[in-house]
Each structure stands twice: as structure tokens, then as C-alpha cells.
UniProtKB/TrEMBL annotation:
It is found in: Cell membrane. Belongs to the cation transport ATPase (P-type) (TC 3.A.3) family. Type IB subfamily. The lineage of its organism: Bacteria, Bacillati, Bacillota, Clostridia, Eubacteriales. This is Cadmium-translocating P-type ATPase. The chain holds residues 295 to 587 of 635 of the full protein.
């Protein structure tokens, strides 16, 4: 049954841009021990920009960018958009050859064929881990330690180049995470990105722990493991690839500018992409739970 305290907390939330899809979620959020966050678009602004490009000896940056952008044009991943706009700014002419058989592999990258030669663009594991790591290995480590996402391109001859992209951590993240920790909540980041990049972003945002190299399904699996270890777990996300984890979590929280699937799957919707709203939600709930008891 809905008590007056619940109703009052729900309307208080609504006034602050926090929408609860039912009183039970409002009760649960105050009992949460762990909150898991998606990285891209949740802790970061989700608007990556290309910062560095390295090519194999014998090919030009234009050659690399024109091919990569031509394939990425067909993907709607935030990294793809960033690569395409960068290439458009940098290139004098667009690609001379057209790509065929383009494929977007969620959590890995994209592939396409240019006059019979297959190109792959994406994470190291996707283009060939050992070769990718051997290609400017030290530079790649430094870029990742700076919190940049490093993607590789592979053509018929091997690794053609690497592209680094930086997505900035939201200004309010550090403070928002600290407030949650002061409430006794453990914070975790789940990302499909590389270990080193994940570590750097976790450090920048003050997150307690992280799991890197997550595929969309493994984000949900990570939530189940956290539930076994800690009990009630909330998940905050914005993307299509966060939907399984949002559904698995005790309370799924979606960022307001998130994808439709994330908004539909979530139990709580933050009207603005404003991380401090999460701690506000927790406080609203603990206060209400005290009154109800
Ligand atoms: P996250 O969980 O950080 O939002 P994703 O699961 O969407 O990331 O992707 C994981 C990784 O796969 C990216 O960090 C990138 O290396 C690679 N990747 C995915 N899609 C693309 C793409 N369109 N172009 C290049 N790389 C991609
Ligand atoms: Mg995201």
C-alpha cells in the first residue's frame, strides 16, 4: 500500500527531476549497498574526441583516416561519430574507394571491405590482440593511462594504425561519487573499454572499483556477481548495451538523455544527466524509509 510518506517522497523526487516507476523502487534505493556505473555517457560526457593518430610506416594518416571513416560512417557508436567528424575536418578529399559488406559488432568494432581487402576497426581483441599490442605498445599504454580509448585499424597487411579518443569525465562526477561513499555505498564502474583506460577513468571519478573488457551481456553478469556479494545493487546507465544490466539490477537508473531502451528498462529515470541526483535519490529514500517504519 502507498503511504502518505511515499507519495510525498515521489512528488518531491518529481519536482527535482527524479522519476520513480513505482513506490517499491523508491524504497529499495535507500537499502542499496553498491551502485554500478556505466563509463561512456554516464560517468563521462559521452562525446569522445580524437586526440592522437599513429600509422604504420609506408602509409599516410589520410590513407588510414579515409578508410576508417568510410567504415565508421555506418556505425552509430559514439566512437564512430568522433572518428568521422575528425576525418571530415582533416581530409582534403574523401575516400576514393567505397566500402562494402560493412558490419557493426557491438562491444568490439566494425568491419568492411575495400576492393576485396577486408578492414577491421575496433578494440585490440577484435583486430588481433598480440599484433595490436605490439604496434607502438609503449605509446598505447601511455594513451590508455591518460584515460583515452585506443582503437586499432587492420588491413590486408596487418595493423595499419591506432586512433586514441578522449571522453571527459563529467565535472560533477568526483563530488557525486564522494557523496555516495559518505552514505556508505560502494561504487563500481563497468566498461567494455581496456583495463588501463578503465583504471584512469575510475581514478579521475573516484570510483572504488571497476570491471573492464565487459561485453553487454557481461555487464548483467557483473551485476549478478555484485548481488551475490553485497545484496541489493543499483545500476546507472544510458546506452542500449546497458539495458540487460539495468534490468538485472535491483534498481536500474537511467540518465535522462539515455537511449530509449535504457529509459524503458530503468526503474528510476533522472530527467537531467546530472550525477548528484543519484545521491539525492538515495537520501530521499532513506528519509522516507525511516518515516514509514
Ligand atoms: P563501453 O562499455 O565503454 O560503452 P562498448 O561496449 O560500446 O563500450 O565498446 C567496447 C569497445 O569496443 C570500445 O572501447 C572500442 O574499443 C570497441 N568498439 C566498439 N564499437 C566500436 C566502433 N564503432 N568503432 C571502433 N571501436 C569500437
Ligand atoms: Mg554508455
Amino acid at each position: 500500500s502507498v503511504t502518505p510518506a511515499t507519495l510525498s517522497a515521489i512528488s518531491n523526487g518529481a519536482r527535482n527531476g527524479i522519476l520513480f516507476k513505482g513506490g517499491v523502487h523508491l524504497e529499495n534505493i535507500g537499502r542499496i549497498k553498491v551502485i554500478a556505473f556505466d563509463k561512456t555517457g554516464t560517468l563521462t560526457k559521452g562525446k569522445p574526441e580524437v586526440t592522437d593518430v599513429y600509422v604504420r610506416d609506408g602509409i599516410t594518416k589520410d590513407y588510414l583516416l579515409s578508410h576508417v571513416a568510410e567504415i565508421e560512417r555506418y556505425s552509430n557508436h559514439p566512437l564512430a561519430g568522433a572518428v568521422v567528424s575528425y576525418a571530415t575536418e582533416q581530409l582534403q578529399e574523401t575516400a576514393l574507394c567505397r566500402v562494402e559488406g560493412m558490419e557493426d559488432i557491438a562491444g568490439f568494432g566494425v568491419r568492411g571491405t575495400f576492393s576485396g581487402v577486408e578492414w577491421k576497426v575496433g578494440k585490440a581483441e577484435f583486430v588481433g590482440k598480440e599484433e595490436a599490442e605490439a604496434f607502438h605498445g609503449e605509446i598505447m599504454k601511455r594513451l590508455s593511462d591518460e584515460g583515452k580509448t585506443v582503437i586499432f585499424a587492420r588491413d590486408g597487411e596487418g595493423i595499419a594504425g591506432l586512433i586514441a579518443l578522449k571522453d571527459v569525465v563529467r565535472e560533477e562526477a568526483l563530488e557525486a561519487i564522494r557523496t555516495l561513499q559518505e552514505e556508505g555505498i560502494k561504487t563500481v564502474m563497468l566498461t567494455g573499454d581496456h583495463e588501463r583506460t578503465a583504471a584512469a577513468i575510475a581514478r579521475e571519478s573516484g570510483i572504488d572499483r571497476y570491471t573492464a573488457h565487459c561485453l553487454p551481456e557481461s555487464k548483467a553478469e557483473a551485476i549478478r556477481k555484485l548481488q551475490e556479494e553485497f545484496g541489493m545493487v543499483a545500476m546507472v546507465g544510458d546506452g542500449i548495451n546497458d539495458a540487460p544490466a539495468l534490468a538485472t539490477a535491483t534498481v536500474g537508473i537511467s540518465m535522462g538523455e539515455g537511449s530509449d531502451v535504457a529509459l524503458e528498462t530503468a526503474d528510476v529515470v533522472l530527467m537531467k544527466n546530472h550525477l548528484p541526483l543519484i545521491a539525492q535519490t538515495v537520501k530521499l529514500s532513506t528519509r522516507m524509509n525511516r518515516i514509514v517504519k
